[in-house]
Design goal:
By secondary structure, the chain is an alpha/beta fold. It folds into two domains: about 110 residues, Enolase-like, N-terminal domain (Enolase-like, domain 1); about 220 residues, TIM Barrel, CATH 3.20.20. It has ten helices and 13 strands. Helix 3 links the parallel strand 5 and strand 6. It is globular and about 65 Å long. It binds magnesium ion. Magnesium ion (MG) binds next to loops.
Length: about 350
Amino acid sequence: MQAEKLKVEVLPRTLAFKQPAGTSRGIYRERRVWYVVVHDGERCGIGECAPLHDLSADYTPDYADVLERACDRLRLTGEVDACGLECCPSVLFGLESAMLSLAAGGSRLGDTAFASGKQGIDINGLIWMGDHDTMLARIDDKLQTGCRCMKVKIGAIDFAAEVDLLRHIREAFPASRLELRVDANGGFSIDEVRGKLDVLARFDLHSIEQPIRAGQWDEMGRLAAESPVPVALDEELIGVYGRDNVERMLDVIKPSYIVVKPTLHGGMTFGARWIDEARARGIGWWVTSALETNVGLNSIAHWCASLQTSMPQGLGTGLLFTDNVDVGIEMRDGRLWFKRNVPNDEMLQKICQWT
Ligand SMILES: [Mg+2]
């Protein structure tokens, strides 16, 4: 039998949201994540696999088995088989993160200005779906915190009410002071989308994510060309594997932006490929977390900081759970800051306390 190069442990955990999180696929009240802990005999490293039920291409009933097989390979080779895991982005991301964490020994991953605590990452404040009054209250809260970029989920309550919310925001803050993004999560039909985009264009929006459902490349391409609001792709990237398909999708649709989520879109390895291909075509991009806990959020933030971008990123979602691990990050003045290098042992101890 081959000797194991690393000890790898999987710690599944279920976490409760402080407030139910409304997404394009319904409301999440709790969240199942799998922490991957690697030990080399001296130190440990922690990564987080956090596929989203109904949204992740790799969230299958045998997810735990797939993860275990990937861990087996890591035990034997001591390396992450990125190519073999392209179709399992959340597994790939968790394993990649665990290995970076092992090398770092703590939550400071790398030597960027972010990691040294000198520079915060601009964040788009995210307004979760809810009824009109709840969303209004959330928007006002967010505006108080000094956020310079806000993203509002639309396509869930009635359109007139959503337009009313956008008007409320714009009355308080012009585009010069607040960048406003909307995310329709594929909620508009092809028949109605153009009319709605014309209405939305009145509010000086930075972009609209996924105006129509993913998988309609020709129609999305026409929209991207004609829309008065720049089109960003998010769900469209899910399940698109292989460089040829990535290139084809970007060339057919020619979006203004893509939203890159390591957990959903290829981990860090293939997330970086999305970004390279976007850059080669003059397509803008930003990085977004996908309801990971702080362990995953911290990995994404450090990765994002290494990519040299000044656009506001979607990294605000890790602070949503009743239980969480202190990884030394904090939100302040609309930015995510890294304040303290937390040793991996300390984080692991906390995770082991949850059952
Ligand atoms: Mg989105």
